[in-house]
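ugh finaly. both done.
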Amino acid sequence: MAKTKTTFFCQNCGAQYSQWMGQCKACGEWNTIVEEVIEKESKNNQTFSKNDSKSRVLKIHEIESQDENRILSQDTELDNLLGGGIVPGSVILIGGEPGIGKSTLLLQISLQIPKKVLYVSGEESSNQIKMRADRLSISNPDCYILTETSTQKIINKAQEIQPELLVIDSIQTIHSSYIESSPGSISQIRESASELIKYAKDTSTPIFFVGHITKDGTIAGPKILEHMVDVVLQFEGDRNYLFRLLRANKNRYGSTSELGIYEMFQSGLRQVKNPSEILISKKEENLSGNAIAATLEGQRPMLIEIQALVSTAVYGTPQRVTTGFDVKRLNMLLAVLEKRAGFHLGSKDVFLNITGGIRVDDPAIDLGVICAILSSNEDISLPDNCLFAGEVGLSGEIRAVNRIEQRITEAEKLGYDVIFISKYNKVDVKNHSIRIELVSKVEDVYKLLF
């Protein structure tokens, strides 16, 4: 009988050690290193592919290029995010907060895709999944449900059913008999994922993994899990809002700058085709401190509403509070206003909010942020039906932003009358029905608006 071997893993970052240590040298966390048993059992080198062709070395010009026959999931947001559909044999990992809607999204895809699907759950019973499926009001006669946690049994059932799509909910609950440690441990997650990925590549069956996250927001388990899979998606949102955002942190088959937007209802997740109309609040009168900015998420232009409140600091030390915007960038913009434009905001509280519960990192909304702050400081509302798209530099200049034509077209589609952009953007004013104001400095914007 082979001798049982043990090793030590950090439960936070997955670093491996030969002996126990109080502090992990890789991530610096204390008391996260635990001992795990690894049995070097000889595995049957089973192959799942039908064609057992031997590997051989090829020159790159000898390899024939093949078109990817992607599988459409009937979910436009997901298909666009993946780069045009699901690639056969790809492994997709979806992470997110508990209760954000990961299982609902994958069950919804399993029920609406016209393919044979095997949905494996290690967390819920078949009756619970059936209740959620009834609530979604979608039916797929080729959707099979399996409540199992053993990778060997899952692969055997998959070989028997031969699904065209496999869903694992979740990878942290799956365990392999080749490893003696408990499910959810570093070695179990790595080994279980490795066996399922081998099945996906050998049979060209795409697999969706649901991944739990830690309190820091990272996917639980070893970091190597994200390297092993082809696509890493992050499902995020604010519990106080109905919106859910699906972002691609890694994508071997497409762009990582795309974004999928959903709205959560009792009957499931609804795709949001035009997020601009939802993210901009409806109000009867113009209020000071509100500005509309044009931003881009991937290839999709969106209009967002920025709210600012500037008031006298009561407690001596001015506060800088932001929601959905980088507070360090806000401090930089306030310094530009004070140094270059002469506005004394150093002794005032500044609160900034991006409505809708989303977070925006696009520098093109700098001009909208500054105009919202100036509007609140002067207590004068901005003109109706105007919006902004420009980056503000440290010298107070308005810099050009990319893909300005898409931003202008989105503003025209939603009926806005005027847009403020940098004069350094090359735009043919005659080709647009919206009035385009070209500005070069923050002072120019202030003179035009106030």
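ok and the 2nd:
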Amino acid sequence: MSHKYLAFDIETAKVLPENINDLNSHRPLGITCSAIWCTDENKPEVFYSKTSDGSPAPQMSEQDLTSLIKYLKKKVNSGYTIITHNGLGFDFNILAEESNDFSTCRNLALQHVDMMFHFFCGKGFPISLNAAAEAIDLSKPTDIDGAIAPTLWKEEKYQKVLDYVAQDCRLTLDIAEKSEQKRRISWITQRGKKSYFELPSGWLTVEQASELPLPDTSWMDNPWPRSKFTKWLK
């Protein structure tokens, strides 16, 4: 392994209507909890705020989010590379808004590896974490996803949400490490076939991936621009 990775993920607080097309129109979303899982650890660390009686709070406070950011920064300074799946367009974007620490979140986002963004910069379209997991015979739980996690938290099913956010970190780590070893990431296409995207230099940080040449998207009806993920950085 050329990197000592730290997988990072958040879960949001706001309960949203089903099948929404524009998540940003419902912001601010709040953050209920977060998890990190380091390459050299056999269990995750989870983060959430607590009420006066010690139970999990409805969402994380700005103070606790600031502490989380400082912890991430400390880990990076000690040699870890943060890795996410859509952390640029989602996790760090939301974290910056909820913590009011745009500058630090921006720097962390640029320095970290976002597997989906790297893939998107190379191919012109995104893939889901589950599509990459299934290609290496792993899968996310079927009874919970990010869309219903806010409802479960509101129903005080805290451990189920904490287990879910931790498992997403574990999946991210497994995919990152196996892909880097093979110098390619595999995924299951919408047609159910396995395909590959080459990683000749391993995973690239957001800053590095942004320098890749634009892929040919002439075959697509409405290709996404990279600014869909990066515009908040400006």
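summary for the 2nd one i guess: The domain at 4-233 is CATH 3.30.420.10 (Nucleotidyltransferase; domain 5).
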